[in-house]
Every structure is written in structure tokens, then in C-alpha cells.
Amino acid sequence: MLLGFRPSLRLLSHRHQRLQSRCVQSENTATSAAVDSVLSALRSICGEDGVSLGAAVREQHGRDESVHRCCPPDVVVFPRCVEEVSALAKVCQHHNLPIIPFGTGTGLEGGVSAVKGGVCFSLRNMDQVLDLHPEDFDVTVEPGVTRKALNSYLRGTGLWFPVDPGADASLCGMAATSASGTNAVRYGTMRENVLNLEAVLADGTVIHTAGKGRRPRKTAAGYNLTNLLVGSEGTLGIITKATLRLYGIPEAMVSAVCSFPSVQAAVDSTVQILQAGVPIARIEFLDDVMIDACNRFSSLSYAVSPTLFLEFHGSERSLEEQVLTAEDITQSNGGSDFQWALDAGTRERLWKARHDAWYAALALRPGCKAYATDVCVPLSRLPQIIVETKQDLIENRLTGPIAGHVGDGNFHCLMVVEPNDPDELQRVQMFTERLARRALAMDGTCTGEHGVGLGKRALLCEELGPEAVQVMQHLKDSLDPKNLMNPGKILQQREL
Amino acid sequence: MSGRVLVGVKRVIDYAVKIRVKPDNSSVVTDGVKHSMNPFCEIAVEEAVKMKEKKIIKEVVVVSCGPQQAQETIRTALAMGADRGIHVEVTGKDYEQLGPLQVSKIMAALAKKEDAQLIILGKQAIDDDCNQTGQMTAALLDWPQGTFASELTMEGDKIKVVREIDGGLETVKINTPAVITADLRLNTPRYATLPNIMKAKKKKIANLKPADLEVDITSRLEVLRVDEPPQREAGVKVETVDDLVARLKEAGRI
């Protein structure tokens, strides 16, 4: 039921003007008029300071770290507790306003873009670490807690949360996007490490996906609602608490680097290391183009050929065994220049190339922007897809050094592109689609880590097939019949 | 040469916590607030443990002054690799008024009692920001001091200390025994691992009172009032430079 609205015309046209210059969508006129009439309702929930119409604040909350342009919401609210989130959701439900949850804005797929305007729920004020149980290896966190903040909090306990997507992201945001990282090969992704979620649904209902306060290490109780929400990118509910699985901080770490004559040799080594039962923590692949970029950027002198960066975790004794086994395997596959180190300083130096990869790629063409592709295929198909992809890059004159979490079959082409060159942008676009389809043809996925967001909705249909997409749509319709929860993400818009 | 290093550690409110002042402006809220080892003390412990691993020194003894909870801080240092701990028990009003002068008297007394070759402290605590304990301890013992250390090298029975100063870096060479205070870039402290936390439970922590060391901890300071910094007020936009100048004149700034 829409209230009769009499917005101040001056205010409306002013805002309408600003919005039009960013997102040309006719729906925004009606939406911004509705928002006017609910501002006092929002303020009565969050307080005066908890509601912002400022242009800078809205812009900040309409963009993430992807290449998608900023689509600012009409208003940003800053709830302080789950009760406020629930009340705000009810207001939005009542007035048919889109709801966009916002953690740290470090996503890579445009997940926080308010394509239909609406209300952005910035959850940064809910920043408490709650309920740490060191003996049970679990902790519950609110959305404002980032992964580095949690690990700093845990530093005296001997525990850590290992999922490391690079950015210092909100942990609840990482749950929402099913984030992964460089050590997924040993510790898993968010899917394996979220025990329970508290979430607010579109109508304001608060649910606990595994039951309130529950944190058994395993469960067979009912439908897996926890993992339904993990990766739902804000389209099914707003995550307000996450119970996470913790691990012991490794006693010691060894880092190693090894060069290979071919991509095949590097991947074969990876497969064999895993088959040998080595509990390797990180195994990262850099192709020759990337190594060359890193050599230039960081003044290093690695051999310009496919390279593996490895990291082992364990007790000092087990590390010896792990490293020897890995070294043997790399040697038998033609690997050379195997270097390894135990102390933190040398380890840093050995891995410097991998750490600086993003910046090294950008430095190849100063002034350009970078976009990372994200396909993931079964390990055995990795050499083929990388070789074909490199061929594609050369044929289409594109800059795309490759870095990959090769232990998971996941790799990223860091596409360095001139943002003011429409022809190049077009070629990059076509390339990424070809790459995604190449991965799908090899039994893989178009997105191993970054999520679907705005840009991969069509690919998702190809990947899952219409039947599975239909099931997803049914779930969406039943949990969010008005399509207010982060519209335009994951599932393609339908005419209602 | 005992080869023994004394490291002082302080339990403070965790650096990530938002500090709040009590309504009566007497002090900050500490009840139910997360506490941890002062970050500069972590660096001091790390440096001592590194020296032991390099076999430059033989034993790391960690000291903390405070109520029962100070033992948690000592345990953390033990989990990082210190050998044993000394808890100097100070409670209640005495603890509220405990400051660098009293702590430095305690450290000096312990240095003599334990026949320490070296004292390493954090350069300052993040709650009071005094930056005095190391310097006072050295003065009481009449030992040389290498403060704001960002690099330490043992050279026989002398220590070369690279100090961070306003103009850059200063290198000094001092005799031992000496007092060192650790600055941010001295090292990156290790995180305690579970097996080491387990082992630390078996290490010894001795309990003492200041009186046992014949130290008088009466304070010469009285805190009158604690206030939060003033709330930031909204800015004002002006349309022209003339407006700006007029406003600044009004505010008495020019």
C-alpha cells in the first residue's frame, strides 16, 4: 500500500536531476518520491545520524571495486542492531523500496550497485565480535567485522580465520558472496566455514539458519539454509551475524617458488602434490607474462616462464617432509630453481612477486584499469584452458597476465584495459565471454570466487541450465515476492 | 654474565576498542572491555625471544605489574617464547595510580634481583602514552639507554642501537647492561600458536608484591578529570572568498 505522497517538488527535481545523470532509469522517479515520504520513518528507527542523503555518502555506497559504474542508492541507512535492520526492512517492504546490504564495498561484481535506487543498508556500525569459543573453534561476528579485524582480535588465542580473498572484507559480506582465497586448497571457502547465519528477510523476519545460538561442527538437520544464504549476494536476506569455523594458527610456515618449462608441467606438479597427500596451504600459478611484469615492477629476476608459488603450514618436522616431497615432484616434472624459506623475511621476499601481481599488471600500462576474470575448471582441464586462453589474448592483442589458485583449478586473467578506448573495452568484453564459455565447456564455472553480481547473470543461466535457474527463481519468489532484495543481481530481471 | 633479559609487559585496553569516558569523568570505562598486551610490549617480547633463538641471550623473564588479570598478559608472552614470568601484584587504588615512576622502581629492583643483562620495554603504553618507564628505569640503575629502537645489534658486550628520531635515524653504541625501548619497526611480533599456548601453561609465574622488593609505589600524581575530545561539529560552506575572510575574522582567527 503506497501512502499518498506529496514530495517537495524542488527536492524531488533536484534529486531526480542528480540520479538521472548517473542512472538513466525511469523507475527512479517513482522510487525517489516514495523515499521522500518514508524518511521520517527511517529516521525514527536509526536516529537522525543514521540516515544519510548526502551525495558523497550515496556515491560511496553505490560502488565497489569492480568495473561496474556507480549506481548510488536514494538513501543510506546505518542500523546499529538486528532489531533496527528488521524495522527498516519492514518500512522498505511497506513502501516497495529496494534494499541493498553493504559491508565494506570490496566486491568485484557490482553487488552493491543500486540499479533501481532504493535504500542501502550500511552495516558498518554493527561491528562486534560476539561469542568466541576457543575450545570449540567457533566465533560469531557482526557484519562490520572485517577479516583482518577478526584475526587481530583472535591473536592471543592461537586461532585464526584463514579464508583470505585479498581485500580486508566484511566477513558477513564474504559469506554473502561465498568468498574464497589463496588458501582454499587447504582450508576451504566460505561455504565450508560458515556454521550459522542470522539474517533479516525481505519482510523483516529474523531467522537463524541453523537455529539461534547453535554451533555444532556438523549437522543433518533439515534443509541447508545456511548454505542457501552463503553466496546469495544479498538477494534473499540481509546477513546480520555469522558463526564461523576457526583453525589453529600454523606452528610454522615454509614458502617456496619453482619455475617450469610449460603450463602443463606446473599443473601436473600441482595434481601430483595433491595426490601425494601433501596438505599444501597455498599453491599459486603465475604465467610467463605475469612473471615478466613482476620482474619489472619489483626488480626481481625470476625465470620468465610458468611459475608456482607454494606455501606449507605445519609443525617444523612435518614441514620438512612436505617440502621434500613437493621438491621431488617438481623436479620430476622438469621444474627448476626450487627455492624455499622458513623465516618470515625470506618468505616475504620469495612471495613478493605474487603479492605485487595486481600492481605489476597495472604497471604494464600506466593509466589503465584492470578487471579480473574468474573461471574455475576441474584440475585436469587447467593446462588446456590456460593455453587456449593465452592464444586468445595474443590473437586479440589484449593484455591479460594470468595468476591462479591452481590447486582449485581457478585462475584470473588480470585484463589491463584503457578505459577510454571503446574498441578495446569491447574486445575485452568478448574475450571474457569466450573465456567463460570455454570454462563451461570444460565442466567448470564462470565464477570460482567473485560471484555473479551484475555481469554474469546470462552466463549463470548457461551454466546451470533452465531447470536449476527455475528452482532458484522459485526460491527467490517465495522469500522475496516483491523482488526488493538487491534487485538486478544473480537472477535476470523478468517482466512481472 | 647471566645472559638474562627482563621484558616488561603492560595489560592495556585493546587498540581496536572504541574508548569511552565514564559519566563521572573520573576515568575511561574498563569493565567488560577487551584488554590485551600493549603493542609495543609485544614488540619488546618478540625481540627478546628472537635474541634467545639466535643464542645471544639465555633466558627471557617477563614482568607485569597489576591485578590478577596481568597474569593473562604474562601467559601471552610465555606463549610467544619467554621462559618464565614475574607478576608484581598491585590492585585497587594503587593500581589506578600506578605510573612510570613506580613501575621503573619495580623494574630496577627486579633487574638487580634477577641479575639482568638487558631490560627491553615498549617505548610507551597506548593508554597513557607516557614514554617514561624505560628512561626512568635506566636512570635509577644508572645504565645506558637505547630508546625508540628500530634495530638492535649485539657487538660483543656493547649494543648498537638504531633509534627513530624526528630527523631520521640515529645510531648509538651503548655498553651493557642497558635499557632498550622498542619502537614500531623493530620487528613484527609473532602470533602465539595453540601448541605454544599449551606449553606456556606449564611455565612458571612467580608472585611478588612491591613491598617484597622494598619499593614504595605511592603516587605523586592525582588525576583530576578525564574528558573525551570535543565532538566534531558540522562544517559550513561559504559561497565566496569574501565570505570566507569575513567568517575567519568573526571567529577571531585573522
Automatic annotation (TrEMBL), chain A:
It is an enzyme of class 1 (oxidoreductase). GO terms for molecular function: D-lactate dehydrogenase (cytochrome) activity; D-lactate dehydrogenase (NAD+) activity; FAD binding. Residues 69-249 form the FAD-binding PCMH-type domain. Its cofactor is FAD. It holds the Pfam family FAD-oxidase_C. GO terms for cellular component: mitochondrion. GO terms for biological process: lactate catabolic process. InterPro entries: FAD-bd_oxidored_4_C, FAD-bd_PCMH, FAD-bd_PCMH-like_sf, FAD-bd_PCMH_sub2, FAD-linked_Oxase-like_C, Oxid_FAD_bind_N, Vanillyl_alc_oxidase_C-sub2. Its EC number is 1.1.2.4. Interacts with CSRP3. Involved in D-lactate, but not L-lactate catabolic process. This is Probable D-lactate dehydrogenase, mitochondrial. It comes from Eleginops maclovinus. The lineage of its organism: Eukaryota, Metazoa, Chordata, Craniata, Vertebrata.
Automatic annotation (TrEMBL), chain B:
Keywords: Electron transport, Mitochondrion, Transport. This is Electron transfer flavoprotein subunit beta. Heterodimer composed of ETFA and ETFB. Identified in a complex that contains ETFA, ETFB and ETFRF1. Interacts with ACADM. Belongs to the ETF beta-subunit/FixA family. Residues 25-217 form the Electron transfer flavoprotein alpha/beta-subunit N-terminal domain. The keyword Transport applies. GO terms for cellular component: electron transfer flavoprotein complex; mitochondrial matrix. GO terms for biological process: amino acid catabolic process; fatty acid beta-oxidation using acyl-CoA dehydrogenase. The electron transfer flavoprotein serves as a specific electron acceptor for several dehydrogenases, including five acyl-CoA dehydrogenases, glutaryl-CoA and sarcosine dehydrogenase. It transfers the electrons to the main mitochondrial respiratory chain via ETF-ubiquinone oxidoreductase (ETF dehydrogenase). Heterodimeric electron transfer flavoprotein that accepts electrons from several mitochondrial dehydrogenases, including acyl-CoA dehydrogenases, glutaryl-CoA and sarcosine dehydrogenase. It transfers the electrons to the main mitochondrial respiratory chain via ETF-ubiquinone oxidoreductase. Required for normal mitochondrial fatty acid oxidation and normal amino acid metabolism. ETFB binds an AMP molecule that probably has a purely structural role. GO terms for molecular function: electron transfer activity. It is found in: Mitochondrion matrix.
